[in-house]
Amino acid sequence: MSVLAVSQSALPSSEALAAMLDRLPEAAPVVVLIHGYRYAPGVPGHDPHDLILSPDVRDPRRRIISWPRHLRLLGDDTLAVAFGWNARGGIWGAYRRAGVAGRDLAEVIARIKAVAPDRPIHVLAHSLGARVALATLPHCPRGSVQRVILIAGAAFRAEAAAVMASDTGARPEVLHVRGPENTFFEALLRAAFPWAGPSLGAGLPGVAGWVDLALDRPGVLPSLARLGHRIAPHRARICHWSGYTRPGIFGLYRAVLSGRVPMAALARAGVPPAAPRPIRPRRRAGQTVR
Predict the structure, then answer these.
(1) What is the mean pLDDT of the chain?
(2) Where in the chain are the domains?
(3) Which residues form the Serine aminopeptidase S33 domain (predicted)?
(4) pTM above 0.85, yes or no
(5) What are the tens digits of pLDDT across the range 152-163?
(6) CA separation for the pair 88, 67 (Å, rounded)
(7) Of 176, 171, 179, whose CA–CA distance to 149 is shortest?
(8) Given this structure, which CATH class describes domain 3-269?
(9) What is the DSSP string of 35-81?
(10) What are the angstrom distances between the C-alpha of 8 and each of 112, 202, 272?
(11) Geometric angle at alpha carbon 65, from 77 and 85, rounded to 5°
């Protein structure tokens, strides 16, 4: 079994995890997948384990695609932990529950490290799942999580900065992927929490271990293409799911999680090209330039 469906209300035991991990190659990673707002395990039509976290979903809606399948986590050489939590209801309650879910997910990661201390663990999260991921990291053993990908993170800069500056917790490398089609949803988040300050949509510049990849920034898509990852431009002006529905994007995520594309390369890809220097006319001897 390559996808382990985990619900916050029913965490797997250390024994169950050990049995699954024993069947994997020694260096095979564990990839934790965290959904965002509006999903909840056991709710018909909204259960993430039947939809984006399922290995077998086939849905005509373009945004309902299988993360494990697109990340190629269905073989015998890796394990995907599909973490489901209650993200239904009002945004205020869901945001609060995301923090609680993070601490519960940290317990799952601690159990994995207890039985397989050398097993690499990575995280991919979307939307409000980014807050779950950020709330997880301070409660994890140091070095237990290697890489984290946050897609259109519905969280705030202050919380992320505090997590990255902490001397305790996992302290992984973090890639935050954003695009202009999510601007409307970022505005809604800031309107719901006006006291929280800038959201992650504003980026987290100057923080060690954190890379913001703004797909709309001039030169970024060509830079990624030179790294071997051709990603389609966004099509819709407003879309919260573009970060995992753009053609080509999962190839980049696979390369990041495997380490084939290092974070340093993505940091360079996210730097806008320098503005061309103005061409000044050459001044000849005795000539006055006006």
Answers:
(1) 89
(2) 3-269
(3) 103-155
(4) yes
(5) 999 999 999 999
(6) 20
(7) 176
(8) alpha beta
(9) --TT--TT-TTT-GGGTTT-SS---SSTT---HHHHTT--SSS-EEE
(10) 16, 30, 40
(11) 80
